[in-house]
Amino acid sequence: MYSIILLPLLVFMYASNNYISTSVHTLSRRTHKKRASRLSIVHISDLHNKNFGTRQSYLLKKIASLQPDVIAVTGDIVDGAPFANAVVFLKKASKICPVYLVRGNHESLAGNFSDFEKKLEGCQVHLLKNTSAVFQKDGCTYQFTGLDDPKFYGKDKNYMPLAKETLDSLVRSQKKDSADYRILLSHRPELFSLYSSYPFDLVLCGHAHGGQFRPPFTDGLYAPNQGIFPKYTSGAHHRNHTTEIISRGLGNSSFPLRLFNFPEIVKIVIQ
Q1: What is the DSSP string of 222-265?
Q2: How far apart are CA 141 and CA 234, in angstroms?
Q3: How far, in Å, CA of 12 to CA of 14, rounded?
Q4: Which of 117, 143, 162, 246 has most Cβ atoms within 10 angstroms of its Cβ?
Q5: Per residue in 122-154, pLDDT tens?
Q6: pLDDT single digits (tens) 216-237
Q7: Residue 90: which of 60, 128, 58 has the closest Cα?
Q8: What does the alpha-carbon distance between residue 211 and residue 78 come to, in Å, rounded to a whole number?
Q9: How many angstroms separate the CA atoms of 234 and 155, rounded?
Q10: pTM, two decimal places
């Protein structure tokens, strides 16, 4: 009797933490230039050094099937040393297309991040530590800007002033007409009101883990730095001229279980 109840429950719990779902968002690129361009981004977050298949084969196959032009990783790729699963993923992902990466709070907590960086030398992995990089396609310039997690600077509370100061400096250093489309990569989604006050068309974030438990008709029960019944846990949010898209993430950290909240890959098409 108990096995009849327990087996489906165990299968459901395993699937909830290992089946990778895909979400797709299509955005329009506002421009006065009469040129056609279509950029496909695969956005992942919060791998937490989890392994999906032999040497990440399941995860990489899912990503490759989406035919991305670039892969954006918005932090917490690791969950403490050793970094083997994260390194394998990034090295193999960079053979699919260029990878743009920002650091989350767990990169800071893990320590020895310089050792992690050395393992990525020779890969097409662009680590954006409060810096920008451009990607060209069809004559259009897409600018990726990375905002470092405040944990690297000793902040895990009241970090909006630090984020604002950093973004002010970044935006000032960028030429006004240097890009046709501007994309911000940041680990923390709860600062959307700040991000949308800058000239970013798109913001990609993670950190919230989809609210961890997502009962029907909710956005999750809890998210770091947002508390219970958080607002920014997944999907697309719009404010002013900016769209923020939040990944529910792939792995787990403090609490090792998801419910009604499959690991997620996000595909974004800008056209």
Answers
A1: EETTTEES-S-SSEEEEETTEEEEE---SS-SSS---BS---EE
A2: 27
A3: 5
A4: 246
A5: 888 999 999 999 999 999 999 999 999 999 999
A6: 888 899 999 999 999 999 999 9
A7: 60
A8: 19
A9: 24
A10: 0.94
